[in-house]
Design a protein that fits this description.
270 residues; alpha+beta; 17 strands; 19% helix
Length: 270
C-alpha cells in the first residue's frame, strides 16, 4: 500500500505532489523529515503519517502550533484516522472571539482549492450575515452552570433567519447564552439571549431573556432589556424576524442595528 500527498505551502509557486510506499512519513521543518516544511510556524518534528493495508493515521508529535483536520484541532500525541481527500492544516490556524476560524498563509495558487474544501466541511468563506454573526456558549451539554441547550438552538436560529431573510446583508450579532454568566457576551450583542427556565401551566420550558442593541468599541454599551420580555426557544425565530423586519422598515440610511435600537420605541422591539 502507498499514499499520495499534495503539499501546499505559503509562498510556494504551486502545490507539490509526493508519493510514499513505506511508512511512516514524517513532516516538519527539520531537513531529516520525509516532507520538509518551510513554514516557520511548523515545528521541527511536527507530525507523522503511518499507513498499512487497512488505514492511514496521522499523529501530531506535540507540535507547538498544532494540527487541524476538518476545522478541528487535533489532540497532540494521539492518532487520528485519515480518509481519502482529507486536508490537514499544520501550523497557523486560529480561532476568533466571534467563533470564526482563520486559516493563515494560504498561497494564492491554493486559494480556490482551500475555499472549496472548507465549503465541503461546512465552513463558508463568504457566509451570510447570520452565519457570520451568530455565536453560542457551550450550553447544558458541556457546562454544569448552563440552564438550557445553546449550540443547537443557535444553529436553528441561524438557519431560520437565512431562510426567512435571505437578502439581509447588514452586520448583525446574535449571541446565545445558557445562563446568567456571560460566556457568549449576550449583553453586548445586537440581539442577546440569556437562557432561563420559564414556568408555564404545562410545566418548565426553555426560554430567553432578551437584550437588544448592545455593542463594543468606541460607543460601547449594554443592550436594552425590557421588564418581563422573554421568549421561549420555540418563539425566538419569530421574535428575531419581527424585530429585524421592523429595523429594515424604519432604519435611516445605513443606520446600524444598535443605533436603531437606541432610538426605537419600546413597542417596536416587543
Amino acid at each position: 500500500m502507498g499514499i499520495r500527498l499534495i503539499v501546499v505551502e505559503s509562498g510556494a509557486a504551486a502545490p507539490v505532489e509526493r508519493e510514499f510506499t513505506s511508512s511512516p512519513v514524517r513532516l516538519g521543518r527539520n531537513e531529516l523529515n520525509d516532507v520538509t516544511l518551510s513554514d516557520p510556524f511548523a515545528s521541527e518534528w511536527h507530525g507523522v503519517i503511518r499507513f498499512d493495508d487497512q488505514a492511514v493515521y496521522y499523529f501530531d508529535l506535540g507540535s507547538l502550533n498544532g494540527s487541524t483536520l476538518a476545522g478541528k484541532r487535533l489532540v497532540k500525541n494521539t492518532s487520528t484516522t485519515l480518509r481519502p481527500d482529507d486536508v490537514l492544516f499544520l501550523g497557523r490556524v486560529r480561532l476568533t472571539a466571534q467563533q470564526g476560524v482563520v486559516v493563515l498563509d494560504v498561497p494564492p495558487a491554493a486559494e480556490v482549492n482551500v475555499i472549496d474544501e472548507l465549503d465541503r466541511l461546512g465552513y463558508a468563506v463568504r457566509p451570510s450575515a447570520f452565519r457570520r454573526g451568530t455565536i453560542a456558549c457551550t450550553g447544558i451539554e458541556f457546562c454544569k452552570l448552563a440552564l438550557i441547550e445553546t449550540k443547537g438552538r443557535a444553529e436553528v436560529l441561524r438557519a431560520e433567519m437565512e431562510q426567512r431573510l435571505p437578502d439581509f446583508d447588514t452586520p448583525i450579532t446574535i449571541n446565545v447564552n445558557g445562563c446568567p454568566n456571560s460566556c457568549a457576551r449576550f449583553q453586548v450583542a445586537d440581539i442577546g439571549f440569556k437562557g432561563m427556565v420559564s414556568k408555564t401551566v404545562d410545566g418548565d420550558v426553555e426560554a430567553f431573556q432578551v437584550h437588544l442593541g448592545g455593542q463594543m468599541g468606541t460607543e460601547a454599551e449594554f443592550g436594552r432589556k425590557f421588564r418581563g420580555l422573554k421568549v421561549t426557544v420555540d418563539e425566538a425565530p419569530d421574535y428575531i424576524e419581527r424585530v429585524l423586519r421592523g429595523y429594515l422598515e424604519r432604519r435611516k440610511g445605513d443606520e446600524a442595528f444598535a443605533a436603531y435600537v437606541s432610538r426605537a420605541d419600546e413597542a417596536w422591539l416587543l
